[in-house]
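User: structure tokens for this one?
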Amino acid sequence: GKQIEMRYVSTRGGCQPVSFEAAIGAGYAPDGGLYVPETLPRITAEDLDAWRTLDFTAVAVEVLLPFLDGEVSREELAELLSKSYEGYDAPETIPVTKLTNTTALVELFHGPTLCFKDLGLQVAVRLLALFARKRNEPRTLLVATTGDTGPAALRAVADVDDPSLRCVVCFPWGQISDLQRRQMTCASSEAIRVCCFEGGGDDMDAPIKRLSLDTTFKAQHGLIGVNSYNIVRPLAQQVHYVWLYLRCRELFSCTSLDVVVPTGAMGNLCAATFV
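Assistant:
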């Protein structure tokens, strides 16, 4: 097979580099760190010129392919991404609207759960399903949510409808909106389970990390954490930064721009660092 180009290393430096499949299948690295790309692909001015007329899915293929080259083919990735974005209610997927001569608004809420987390989780779940099918190894996705991540993860698993995947979501009782609670508790897929816990959202971080680092339990259940610490999420979420740059360059004839990001745990902002 083709030699794997990109490798992933732990932020704590205590592990050997691994493949993209291994990194997203692990969530946390064995030393408790987070997996990040060993190097970052360079986007050139020529690339940006060539991508100017591409639609969102085609831009996503160009941006993401170097991160998994050798493990997922261009054709597989293009088909996977097309399915990931087909549930959006805006033709351009991510509309960029000019407000003033110096300001534009980027709308990230046109996905199936009305939240920007769809951008990461539709792609993440489909990639995990692809690898699970190739290896014939069932996977259990584990999610802790304070509102947005849970519905997006459950919707992606239901949309993929793959027998190799199931999903368990935990949310803090009384601390999410009624809409978000109903999005999760009214989901109809047999592949998903939802449970609530007492406390704040951060109270689930420690037990999930313990489960993720328990190699025996993890192997027994094919456990994968898909919160923002899993590298597949910020990688998938970087695409809209390239997209908004291309659109703003058109709207304002600019070569640089400032992006204001309303964010909670910095997952959206973190994605921008890979571009």
